[in-house]
# Entry
Amino acid sequence: MRRSAACFGRTSTVAVVLGAVVALGAGCVPASPDANTYRDAASQSIGTAVSELATIEEMLRLLASDDIMRPAVVTQLRYSEDGLEKSTQWFTGLNPPTGSDGFGKRVGTLLQRGGNLLTEARIAVHRGQVDRYTRIADDLKTLGDHLDKVEGRLS
# Structure
């Protein structure tokens, strides 16, 4: 269910993500949040990552089977990279509450790994490296599933 909603609701997903990024960047969370607010911020950022990774995973699979046009994937890759990058920067720019340094670093590392995979996907699509699409899609799924579990534990 997560994947089909992420893929076929691409426009609404982008709108929601961009809206969340604007709201978050507007100061809805203090730079030095308490532990609960920090965990909520992590959950929001992880949720963004799960959505963006699932969207690109599905698009790579469609592209590998010639069921989507390359320009659509290139455009979505840019939106997804931008959305995840902004969300990651916002979260990693927060001051973790006392005792949350390790948690913050782990979440930041996972978010950055997601960004790296999206970059890898963009480069492979740009170069037309069709043989890499499935492996990258599998890596996106693995990380997305892991992030989904982490987000579930935060709720």
User: Anything to note?
Assistant: The two ends are 19 Å apart (CA to CA). The domain at 2-24+36-154 is CATH 1.20.120 (Four Helix Bundle (Hemerythrin (Met), subunit A)). The chain has one domain: 2-24+36-154. The mean pLDDT is 87.
